[in-house]
Amino acid sequence: MASASCRKCGRNLDFSGDRPRFCAYCGQPLDGSALEATIEYSPAPEAGLTVVGPSIGPGASIPDRLAGYRLVRRIGDGGMGAVFEAEDEVHGRKVAVKVLSDRIGAGRESIDRFRQEGRLAATISHPRCVFVLAADEVDGRPYIVMELMTGQTLQGLVDSVGPLPVEEAVLRILDVIDGLIAAHRLGVIHRDVKPSNCFLEADGRVKVGDFGLSKSLAADTSLTRTGSFIGTPLYASAEQVKGEPVDERTDIYSVAATLHFLLTGHPPFEAKDATAALARIVSEAPRPLRERRPDAPAGLESAVLRGLERDRDRRWRSLSEFRDALLPFAPHPIPDAGLAPRVAAFAVDAACIGLLWAALHLLAFRPLLGELWGMMLSDLVSWVAYFGPLEGLLGAAVGKRLLRLRVFRDDRRAEPGIPLASVRALAFYGIALLPWSLVTTIMEQIWGDRILDWGRESLGFALANVLLPALGLAIVLGPMRRRNGYRGMHEFLSRTRTVRLPRAARRREPSARRRSARDSSIIRRPPGVLDHVGPYRIRGAVRWESGRRVLAAEDSGLGREVWVVMSADRSEQPDTARRELNRPTRSRWISGGETPEGRWDAYTAPAGAPIADVAGPEGLPWSEARPILSELAEELSSSMADGTLPASLDPEQVWVEPDGSVQLVDPLGGPAPRAGHPPDQPRVDGDRRSLTLLARVAALALEGGRRRSSDATSAIRAPVPAQARELLDRLAGPGPRYDRLVEARDRLRGLASEPDELTFMARVNRLSTFVASIPLRLAGTTLLLGMIHAAGFGERMHDASGISQARVEAIQFACLSLILWPAMAAVSRCRWTSSFLGAVLVRDDGMPPSRPHCAVRELVIWAPLMGLGLVAIFVRTGAAWGTPAWLLWAVWALPGTWVLIDMAHELAFPGRMLHDRLARTRLVPR
């Protein structure tokens, strides 16, 4: 082992064989190395990276048949072996078989690596990943069986048609990201994502495959190589080049590099040989995307370049975060922003403009132009300087970015650019604010101090300050209608619009309750259970019934958990549609066969727990239950469309995976649709059975152990948003029901864009309203108390009781408050405050509170406040001379402390201040 030293960074590089040409840490060329078109780079095994080695030569001995698979043709070479199109002679399906190379297979380490590759890939069952069917060994030769990908790769697509349109490229890469997210959830890092490993299906969707399924690396004209290398140089991250450990962010780099290729037709770095390319990866930043693709939105360029950062700590933290950044550029409708978030964003931006205005006025324009004209010019310049660059280049200033709003061109495809954004800002300012600013400045210049004296000048100045801004805003806001996306006059003039970014479907992290539920199913081993069925080792029985049994088993070749369904009816073979079904919401069929006991079929085993166990005794919040119901409705609808709806549907078949996704585990139900015997069930029967299942699952998810699984008729009692209440009432309850599943499915789709709980802004509004209501309530009570005093009642009470006047007034004030406000709450049912907040007050069971309940809730709010206030007054009026001042202040702070504690509870539990928890009520979105 030789060593070389880098003169730039001072690090030593150990190597064997030829001297390295560049430093793997800083990219500095090293003296004495010749230019070569091949590389030999074999880092230490602890780097944990995929190694691509020599391929199988044409003369390698590969049999025509391999363990029941007839090899049809060779379709590619991978580093560990060759890939063949093959026919499964047992089930009659076409598959891809990867066979370990003769040259590689001699080493034990290579065989173990090959097997590990199959085991890791087999843990992933996702429509956007190539599925591994089996792995075994024949005569000492390991092989892996995978689904066959017959379409071209993304590499081939770009080679044939050139760079893709922006929306199409983003759509393709989102499929890649979805597949990799599924792998990352299972702890699998792909490590070799590239266009030639991403396969197109017949419907245009993309699947991520292993490098072994790509075209021969030896035939890759981009770079040639000998020996071994970790990953593919053109799409490898800096940490891969350096031989450092990889993590999820390594795949993020490769995904960003692949997207760069789809958009430009070129990888981020190009060179005459692989060595130079590697040197650039570790030492240079990639070229800006828009140098090659000028029409690419600036936001998209920013997202890609962040994914291509050399320092992994500066990349996106996760693929989900990267996916969120790409969503605005995908080909889906981006909704227009409503009025409420735009007003909230404007309030934030106005505060920022105020700071910029103050700096410009004090430091620049006031010294040059004086007070009045400096103020007006500062207005104009700060408005354009703030909105022009931020909205033109980034699509959003501070306020809009906080609320996920963006300013796009009228076609919704990209940011407007600085010229259009400046026109937009000038139009708004010129219409809404410039006349007011100009007129009032002239008035102050002419009238001066006379404005301060009451007269015609002061009246005219006051009217100008009120009417001119109101008139300007009316002109700007006048065209805003729902049908035109609430576009103002300034947006029509600048050909822009304000949109709301879609949110990625995101789930909460599985709770400890959910994780413990994964082992809730009892696997027993009754007498007579087999040790092996086909290639599977039986661990026990999940269900043991006469004529049909479900066994838990393990695929020893892949280390994968499977469920084997044993049926005495040999004709109970799933039909072709069920065998080929590949959705993450259904158990995937792997293989099947016959034994003397009957027919058996193997399915992927669920990793989660039944919905009843996940919900637990208290049920799930609507934010967790809604995605479950939505995915279940989508699966049932798809099953009805392709004829794979299970013969029986029961809530025990609905399982929730550790990541919160749903799976319909039909092995726990009745027989699957038989081959040659399509289910003869009318559409209406499928709708009825699916809606019944959806209702029962909704009840179990939301009510938990309080609900019997068989009860699908009584109303579901759970605190949900008002719009969700309508859905639940039409699923289960005494009123009209849904007739077709698509109605419930579409309603669930619509609810995905509605808030599941009070938003942050709604909670801030609630706390602000609560604080603002305190002085108003106190003022109203004081007014009534004044009327009582006018009647002399307080004096008579003081004379009769001998209590001091201050204490009498405090008692009267407290009693009056505890009568007046609960009475008003009972009359209004608290609707006036909840309507103002865009919320609805409900009980803990989701039902509207009665009038007495509303009165009790109001008492819970004000009784502690009044009680602590009385304590403070009694202590203050009875305090002896010389009582420490801090003690008196501490007593007076007690009511305020209660208010803060009450409000703090809202921050931890959305929709529930402390008084709501005590009164067993809560606010939910309207």
TrEMBL record:
Pfam families: Pkinase, RDD. The keyword Metal-binding does not apply. One of its GO terms (molecular function) is ATP binding. GO terms for cellular component: membrane. ATP binds at residue 98. Residues 569-583 have a biased composition (Basic and acidic residues). It is found in: Membrane. SMART domains: S_TKc. The chain crosses the membrane at residues 343-360, 380-399, 420-439, 459-480, 770-790, 810-827, 859-879, 885-904. Residues 69-327 form the Protein kinase domain. It is a multi-pass membrane protein. Its EC number is 2.7.11.1. Residues 569-599, 666-686 are annotated as: Disordered. Its main location: membrane. InterPro entries: Kinase-like_dom_sf (IPR011009), Prot_kinase_dom (IPR000719), Protein_kinase_ATP_BS (IPR017441), RDD (IPR010432), Ser/Thr_kinase_AS (IPR008271). Keywords: ATP-binding, Kinase, Membrane, Nucleotide-binding, Transferase, Transmembrane, Transmembrane helix. PROSITE patterns: PROTEIN_KINASE_ATP, PROTEIN_KINASE_DOM, PROTEIN_KINASE_ST. It comes from the Bacteria. This is Serine/threonine-protein kinase PrkC. The lineage of its organism: Bacteria, Pseudomonadati, Planctomycetota, Planctomycetia, Isosphaerales.
